[in-house]
Specification:
Layout lengths: L3 H13 L42 H16 L5 H4 L9 H20 L4 H18 L1
Helix pairs in contact: 2-4
Length: 135
């Protein structure tokens, strides 16, 4: 068994040494759930775990995927099968629409890494509200 205080001390060291980069506009929090080892899964390690993370660096993965998609789309590679289906028989607009969604996601992750992320949206809303009041 793992002592929960050891886990929390390790997390504290991660925060103090700034081994993980946190968003500047939110609290630096890491949530941990400890559980007993499964009797069904044999492992040699004393500790095993799963980490689920949502962080702004994920945009690089989306960018790489989109770059690869753009290369394939430019050559119209692997599209024959799709063109034969009813959804894509008229056009491949669904692909283009999906690409726009992924690009918007990338842009949002990039914006969220900035310290002004929370206030940027408010400034735009305030400006547009002021314009509406003048009209």
């Amino acid at each position: 068994e793992v002592d929960p205080t050891q886990v929390h001390k390790s997390l504290q060291r991660i925060r103090e040494r700034k081994m993980a980069k946190f968003i500047p506009w939110g609290p630096a929090s890491i949530q941990v759930a400890l559980s007993k080892k499964s009797p069904y899964v044999k492992t040699e390690h004393r500790v095993s775990g799963l980490m689920i993370a949502n962080h702004t660096s994920i945009h690089t993965l989306f960018q790489k995927s989109m770059w690869q998609y753009d290369r394939l789309r430019k050559r119209n590679a692997f599209l024959d099968v799709y063109k034969k289906s009813k959804l894509f028989e008229d056009s491949l607009a669904e692909f283009d629409s999906s690409r726009e969604v992924v690009q918007a996601l990338i842009n949002e992750y990039k914006k969220s890494a900035k310290s002004t992320y929370l206030t940027d949206g408010l400034e735009l809303e305030t400006k547009s509200s002021a314009k509406e009041m003048k009209v």
